[in-house]
Amino acid sequence: MVEQFIGTWKITSSENFDDYMKAIGVGFATRQVGNRTKPNLIVSVDDDGIVCLKSQSTFKTTEIKFKLNEPFDETTADDRKTRTVVSLENGTLVQKQSWDGKETNIEREITDGKLIAKCIMGDVIAVRTYIKEA
User: Fold this and answer.
1) Which of 33, 99, 105, 111 is close enough to 82 for a disulfide, judged by CB 3.0 to 4.6 Å?
2) E strand or H helix that includes residue 21
3) Strand (E) or helix (H) holding 33
4) Model confidence, pTM
5) Parallel, antiparallel, or unpaired for β 72-75 and 81-89?
């Protein structure tokens, strides 16, 4: 169920994120900002089952709204235009982004009360850990 993800999540650690951004083709200047940015992740669901994922930081706020398993067009924080589909697989929220013949997955799951986001591009995996704000 998506319900377990609902709330405001504060990032506490980010491992290998620079390598991940390199792997998806993010330029140096944007990576510098990306590495310094500590976004909150805000997850909500409306009455129609539309999920909203908002990444909020002092630098930039991005938001996507979607229904599970329905493809949509996304403009990412680093300005990639992707065709994205989000599904729920065994309690893991899997966001697949496709662009220019490439594909990356962001897998979010709740483990020990923390939200763990794995950003996967080929054999490069970044792990970002969030804790829920009270």
Assistant:
1) 99
2) helix 17-24
3) helix 28-36
4) 0.95
5) antiparallel
